[in-house]
């Protein structure tokens, strides 16, 4: 078996998975709701926040991206996996010379591609709104606010989007892992949401760790911290966008990306262990 | 003798059902061999383990005990499936692809070389008689059409071994006859075919050998002719014989030491009758249409 053949098959499976997902009503309605929500943040302009308004819109947009993106990561991955099982299309696929790992990787990439679309659309809409409000603001307040040409570093909006997308990837891979041994979608979705909450709050454990004395408790916390990725790492949004001084170093971004990639690969490999034994 | 296409030895499959480790034995100590270039029928009532056996052959399920080989290689290996085509029972495919896209997709999954894909796809679609509907979405297909496109999908990479799980379920007699013809054509091309069914009439004229399963156990196995032939009887089909003539024949049979076991009117099977009638209508329809186009 040539490795390039393997990639071709993964690409093909990812392609159909993505196509299937995009044509689902669920994705489209979620996308519309998210866009509407991001757009609705501009209604607050009547309060006249000044530059605070831009910050507000940004936070609001990032929040919506995180919230709906997380929902989409979990539900779409679950749906795509169980559709394939219940309709027994997986049967036809796995009767071909296709490795189960290829199948899982294809499913994951298809879902991740879907999330990329989602993230891209939301960040584009957010940037558009920010640009529009920024122009209006500059017109009103004159140019004294300008630091280096504009108030907002738009690149950072997309950087934040990218990091969120990596995080969604971990979530999707974890969901796939749960799906690989669970029999129902509901179970998969619930467990994955718990995982999301744990990972989101994981930094608390980390804080506890630093203040702990050496001992088995410390090891336990350390272990938990390794099993569950720390999602706070991906939320560097506050420093982004506005704060010129604190622009993140490229190496930091790369590190976070690598951190995410390791978890993605690990979860997919774990999923493969379960999936190999699963009766289809 | 060359390596058999499929060799199953002492195969047992238990499913865990319910709590407390209850076991359901779906396949029970099955031994089978399917020779190369043979049409082999797997028969049995519902729930007798046909599909389970097929899934194990394809490596979709793992055997509890026993072994299963495809051309001498353990069927668990992905590589062993390289030259195997499979039509699952009640197939279902990605609804939003067209028939042609679907077949093409599976062709690419099976690594059919790029330059050959279009020709291969067109030829199997023609083979299963789906040319007209090939550009419609699979979601709009009828049950029989799904079955046909499924067959096309299983043949597109020109596999040496073709496994069909109830290929004629939901297909009209005309389509069944067409599928049977395809299976014969595959045999002529040197392929091996394993098919399962409980529609015995269809299998009878088609398979070289059959195995009959019952509750996961192999009940009978052998050449169809050997299994169903009445070894000690022959039938004469006679036309235009008068009553006196018949009495004379009966007397002669007795004189020769034979015994007239039964007298029956030869009947066309309903299947054959249906086919004949429909075929005539089809020809009529075709000539009418030609006439219509000309005028
Ligand atoms: N995944 C499974 N879990 C538990 N039991 C199963 C499973 N798959 C099949 N069985 C059981 O195994 C037995 C054999 O099933 P199988 O599908 O092989 O029958 P079959 O011969 O193909 O029947 P049919 O003619 O209805 O298609 C049945 O009793 C069925 O209930
Ligand atoms: Mg069956």
What layout of secondary structure does this protein have?
The complex is a heterodimer of chains A (280) and B (295).
Chain A: H1 3-22, H2 25-40, H3 51-86, H4 89-94, H5 100-141, H6 154-181, H7 185-200, H8 202-210, H9 216-227, H10 250-277
Helix pairs in contact in A: 1-5, 2-3, 2-5, 3-5, 3-6, 3-7, 5-6, 5-10, 6-7, 6-10, 8-9
Chain B: E1 6-16, E2 23-34, E3 39-43, H1 50-57, E4 65-70, E5 73-74, E6 84-87, H2 99-109, H3 114-127, H4 143-155, E7 161-165, H5 173-188, E8 192-197, H6 200-204, E9 209-214, E10 217-223, H7 224-228, H8 243-255, H9 270-294
Parallel strand pairs in B: 3-8, 3-9, 6-7, 7-8
Antiparallel strand pairs in B: 1-2, 1-4, 4-5, 9-10
Bound molecules: adenosine-5'-triphosphate, magnesium ion
Measured by residues with Cβ under 8 Å of the partner chain's Cβ, the largest interface is: A-B, 25 and 29 residues
Tell me the strand order in the biggest sheet of chain B: 6-7-8-3-9-10
Based on helices, strands and strand pairing, what is the structural class of chain B?
A: alpha/beta
Structural class of chain A: mainly alpha
**Count of DSSP helices of chain B?**
9
Compute the CA-based radius of gyration of chain A: 21 Å
The outline of chain A comes out as: globular
Q: Percent of residues of chain B in helical segments?
A: 25-40%
Q: How many strand units of chain A?
A: 0
Integer-rounded radius of gyration of chain B:
23 Å
Q: What count of domains describes the coordinates of chain B?
A: 1
Name the quaternary structure. heterodimer
Percent of residues in helices of chain A: over 70%
Calculate the terminal CA-CA distance of chain A, rounded to whole Å: 24 Å
How many angstroms separate the termini of chain B? 61 Å
Q: What composes the largest sheet of chain B?
A: 6 strands, mixed
Order of helices and strands of chain A: HHHHHHHHHH
Main sheet attributes: strand count, strand direction, barrel closure of chain A: none
